[in-house]
Each structure stands twice: as structure tokens, then as C-alpha cells.
Specification:
Protein name: Pyrroline-5-carboxylate reductase
Family: Belongs to the pyrroline-5-carboxylate reductase family.
Pathway: Amino-acid biosynthesis; L-proline biosynthesis; L-proline from L-glutamate 5-semialdehyde: step 1/1
Radius of gyration: 21 Å
Strand order of the largest sheet: 3-2-1-4-5-6-7-8
Distance between the termini: 35 Å
Largest sheet: 8 strands, mixed
Bound molecules: 1,4-dihydronicotinamide adenine dinucleotide, (2S)-3,4-dihydro-2H-pyrrole-2-carboxylic acid
Structural class: alpha/beta
CATH topology of the largest domain: Rossmann fold
CATH class of the largest domain: Alpha Beta
Function: Catalyzes the reduction of 1-pyrroline-5-carboxylate (PCA) to L-proline.
Keywords: Amino-acid biosynthesis, Cytoplasm, NADP, Oxidoreductase, Proline biosynthesis
């Protein structure tokens, strides 16, 4: 199956790396292009064995699947360059804030899917939300699912929920890194030793959430002895309304995804 990435940045690389490690896709069937960064394409070819070209006839010839992975600001130009070669095959966009209907307006009818992965795709641990238009065959739906299950978990969601998925898990790894930055700063006295404690604590907690069948609240309560250290620490978080801050963070990222989509569609509607 010939897979073409239009856009060769961090998200494309994360997906290619994940797909290369999966037995389902042959790296020699993967093609990439970008705007004009030859060196970047050479690096991807060297590292992952994928093919690259700026010759669009060659690129899109007999392509089964096109993955759009450019920044939203470049989407119209990239889609316009795909259009002459688009043959109603499956196209999956991973762009934040670009609707399926906008893509259809440029390309015409075809099998269009939208996905919101995250950069943990690089290690096969993305949490991806996936939506389809009504034109996908069952086998195209299966292909879309298998692409994203090769780089982590995949959940079908209505397109209207993708803004929330973007604010929650698309941007989500950045929120966790932010918390880790704060923990590392707080434990500066441990120096280099702090990070292994933090990483293993995160890994252990994630694994407990995944395997214990317990709610996060119960898991937290099991650590919190009356009059103990955790209670003292959590009281500081409560006092600073950290739960509210996280709720506001996810809400604002979600609303911003909607906002970007509206702005994009207003700017490019003609
Ligand atoms: N980075 C992340 O954590 C996530 C990003 N996304 C989405 O993925 C998309 C790509 O993001 P990144 O990979 O981070 O961006 P990036 O800036 O690293 O890469 C963008 C790529 O698009 C190429 N490009 C620009 N115009 C082009 C054109 N006309 N034709 C062909 N290629 C063109 C650039 O040369 C570059 O290779 C964004 O729309 C973003 O919303 C989605 C989930 C997570
Ligand atoms: O920050 C962004 O706009 C992109 C979308 C999800 C993660 N990064």
C-alpha cells in the first residue's frame, strides 16, 4: 500500500517512526514531501528508509493513502497542490482546526478522515482520536484505524469532539512535561538524581491507572494517610486551585481549536 505524507515535520516523523516499528507497514511503501527542505527529506530517507520526491506525478502515482501533515497556515496551498492528483483515495488530515468539509471544498468528494494524534506516536504511545466522512469504505476505515493503532491507541469520535481531543490529548503531552518541569525545579537539590524519580513515578502512576481498575480518586486516597505528607502536599495544590487551573487549561485549548478553525475558514473561504 503506497502511503504519501504531505508535510515532513515533527508529526510526520513521529508517525513514520511508529509505523516503521509496526509489522503492518513497509517503510519502502512510504513516500514523503515537504515545502522545500531537501536536507530534511534526505534525513528522513536515511533514518527510516522512506522515499521522497518533489515530483508530484511520481509522488501521487498509484497512491492508496495521502496523509496531510502540514501546519494549518499551509493547508490551503498544500491541498491545492494535491488536488490535480487526487483520485478520491483515502486522505487523512492530522491538522488541528481544519474541518473535513473544508478539505472537501478544495478536493471535492472523496474519502476524508481527520485524526488527532500526539507526539508520543514516536514511541508507539499516541492517543489518537479519529473521525471519518461518509465516503470511506469499510476497508478504508480499517486502514485508517490500523495506521493509528500502529502508533498507539485509537478511538473513533464524532468530528465535533475532535476539538476536545485536541485540547486534551493532542496538546496533552505538553501539559505533563510542564508538570515535570515544575517537579524538577522543586527537586533541584537532588540535581541529576531528580529526573529518574520523576519519570518512574509517572510511569508507575500511568501503569496503575491502566491496570488497577481503580479510579484516580481512589488511587490518590490510597496514598494519602491522615496527617501525612501527601495530605500536606495536596492541601497546597487545593489551596492554589490546581484542579481548576487544569480544567481551564483544557477548556481554553479546546476553545482555541474551535477558534482557529473558524478563523481559518473565514480567511480561506473563497
Ligand atoms: N506537533 C504536535 O504535537 C501535533 C501536531 N499536529 C498537527 O500536525 C500538523 C503538522 O505539525 P508539525 O509536524 O508539528 O509541523 P512542522 O512545522 O514540524 O512540519 C510541517 C511540514 O509541512 C511542510 N509543508 C509546509 N507547506 C507545505 C506544502 N505546501 N506542501 C508540502 N509540505 C509543506 C513543511 O515543509 C514541514 O515539513 C499541524 O497541523 C498540527 O496541528 C497534530 C497533533 C500533534
Ligand atoms: O499546538 C498545536 O496547535 C498542535 C495541535 C496539537 C498539538 N500541537
Amino acid at each position: 500500500m503506497k502511503i504519501v505524507f504531505v508535510g515532513a515535520g515533527s508529526m510526520a516523523e513521529a508517525m513514520i517512526k511508529g509505523m516503521k516499528n509496526s509489522s503492518e507497514f513497509k517503510h519502502t511503501d512510504i513516500w514523503v514531501t515537504n515545502k522545500h527542505d531537501h536536507a530534511r527529506l534526505d534525513k528522513l530517507s536515511e533514518h527510516y528508509g522512506v522515499k521522497s520526491t518533489y515530483n508530484f506525478s511520481e509522488l501521487f502515482d498509484a497512491a492508496d493513502l495521502i496523509i496531510l501533515a502540514v501546519k494549518p497556515k499551509d493547508a490551503k496551498e498544500a491541498l491545492s497542490s494535491v488536488k490535480p492528483f487526487y483520485n478520491r483515495q483515502l486522505l487523512i488530515s492530522v491538522l488541528a482546526g481544519l474541518s473535513i468539509s473544508f478539505i472537501e471544498q478544495i478536493l471535492g468528494h472523496g474519502a476524508i478522515a481527520r485524526a488527532m494524534p500526539n507526539t508520543s506516536a514516536m514511541i508507539g504511545e499516541s492517543a489518537t482520536g479519529l473521525s471519518f466522512n461518509s465516503q470511506l469504505s469499510d476497508s478504508q476505515k480499517a486502514v485508517a484505524r490500523s495506521i493509528f493503532s500502529s502508533i498507539g491507541s485509537v478511538t473513533y469520535v464524532e468530528e465535533s469532539r475532535l476539538d476536545l481531543v485536541t485540547g486534551l490529548s493532542g496538546s496533552g503531552p505538553a501539559y505533563i512535561y510542564y508538570v515535570v518541569e515544575a517537579m524538577e525545579k522543586a527537586a533541584a537539590e537532588l540535581g541529576e538524581d531528580a529526573m529518574p524519580f520523576i519519570i518512574q513515578t509517572l510511569k508507575g502512576a500511568a501503569h496503575m491507572l491502566e491496570t488497577s481498575n481503580q479510579s484516580p480518586e481512589n488511587l490518590r486516597k490510597a496514598i494519602t494517610s491522615e496527617g501525612g505528607t501527601t495530605e500536606a502536599g495536596i492541601a497546597e495544590l487545593d489551596c492554589r486551585q490546581v484542579k481548576d487551573a487544569f480544567a481551564a487549561c483544557i477548556k481554553e485549548a479546546t476553545v482555541h481549536s474551535e477558534r482557529l478553525r473558524r478563523q481559518f475558514e473565514q480567511t480561506h473561504s473563497s
